[in-house]
Specification:
By secondary structure, the chain is α+β, with helices and mostly antiparallel strands. It has a single domain, classed as Beta-lactamase (3-Layer(aba) Sandwich), CATH 3.40.710.10. It has ten helices and seven strands. α4 packs across α5. The longest helix has 32 residues. The N terminus is likely disordered.
């Protein structure tokens, strides 16, 4: 900002002219007056004081609102990373409020996990993107693969879709940054991904034309308690956030050096929230124990969600 210098001459006070005899003044020859530098008009001090006072009051109000909003957000957010009841567990989680576009939680969202049955979201999305399934081409096999997490159907669709080519197509189309195909092309469950990339998968599904979007989400809303392999898939979101509407896709597996019990999906009235909780447990952890721990972790997310969205 350029400094403004005050011209002192503009504020010089001139003495009042002495009183003159009117007759003498009239007799004087006409002179050309020398113009004086006029003092610029100045706002009354009372008005300036009111203006500064109003500005100060507005500033105080804005600061109070900002502090109140920050305190409200802080009181709703969990302190630190999402915990687990199993020692040595790894958690990657993200929670988004889709109504406002706000990220309510992001803890280790870039940590990689074995994807397990979450790959079925990519298999289904790839079929819809290529026009082989969708609202106008409902496929009972795709629906069952998603709802019941049917591995046999996933095997068939994985093979017919080109195996790792499915991952390559969806990574390119969705802009996934941390999802990689399995080293063994025959093992689709060994695909690796992150919580952040799973968020992008759901955002892609939500961006589809309404018939295609509703076709996929209906399968996730109707996920039964018992999956195709007999496992209780109502853990995580379905258990920890019971009473909330949901559309879920779970992913679980044990062996080959790790145990996972992932829970992901849309939660709340009007699919307001997107919840992704990826959980890895030490090798040898009982799968039922892992699922229970994921449910407990999911329950800690409840304070983030508005109660009026529960039903």
């Amino acid at each position: 900002m350029v400094e403004q210098k005050t011209d002192r001459l503009a504020f010089r006070r001139y003495p009042a002219a002495p009183r003159q005899d009117p007759r003498w003044v009239l007799a004087m020859p006409e002179l050309t007056p020398t113009p004086l530098r006029q003092r610029p008009p100045r706002a009354p001090r009372t008005n300036r004081g009111l203006l500064f006072g109003a500005i100060a009051i507005v500033a105080v109000i804005i600061a109070a609102i900002a502090l109140s909003w920050a305190a409200s957000r802080a009181s709703k957010a969990p302190s630190g990373p999402v915990g687990s009841s199993v020692a040595g567990a790894r958690i990657g989680a993200e929670v988004l409020d889709l109504s406002s576009g706000t990220t309510l939680l992001d803890t280790s969202g870039d940590v990689k996990f074995r994807a397990d049955s979450l790959v079925k979201l990519l298999i289904a999305a790839d079929l819809v993107d290529r026009g082989y399934a969708g609202g106008s081409k409902a496929s009972p096999r795709v629906t069952r693969m998603l709802s019941y997490s049917d591995d046999q159907i996933a095997d068939q669709l994985w093979q017919s879709g080109g195996r790792t080519a499915i991952i390559a197509r969806e990574v390119a189309k969705l802009g996934l940054t941390d999802t990689e195909p399995p080293a063994d092309p025959g093992r689709w469950g060994d695909t690796t991904t992150t919580a952040s990339d799973v968020v992008r998968i759901y955002q892609h599904i939500l961006s589809l034309a309404a018939p295609d979007r509703d076709y996929l989400l209906k399968a996730l809303r109707n996920a039964p308690e018992v999956s195709a392999d007999g496992f209780d898939q109502h853990y995580g979101i379905a258990s920890g956030l019971s009473g909330w509407p949901w559309a879920i896709k779970q992913g679980w597996a044990s062996g080959r050096g790790s145990v996972e019990a992932h829970t992901t999906g849309l939660v709340g009235k009007g699919d307001r929230y997107l919840v992704v909780l990826l959980a890895g447990y030490p090798d040898g952890t009982d799968l039922a124990t892992a699922a229970k721990a994921t449910s407990d972790s999911a329950a800690t997310l409840a304070p983030l969600l508005a109660k009026d969205a529960a039903r």
